[in-house]
Amino acid sequence: MGAIILRLPAVKARTGLSRSTIYLHISEGRFPKPVPLGARAVGWPEDEVKAINAARIAGKSDDEIRALVIKLHADRKTRA
């Protein structure tokens, strides 16, 4: 079974964040970058969104979440 990819409306619903806040967090390294799905479409792996939500719920610091994002991006390379 492959990874589930969430489009922006689903990410917004699952995080409670607005589009602009999601992209602000991406620029600050506190949310994973989206993966390209096509010429004009992107999405986020569901497990990465869950991991960020779990870290926030656990009270992780911004620096700890940045480290998690780096790990999530590195893990993408080993999934294929």
TrEMBL record:
Domain of life assignment: Bacteria
The protein's name: AlpA family transcriptional regulator
Lineage: Bacteria, Pseudomonadati, Pseudomonadota, Gammaproteobacteria, Chromatiales
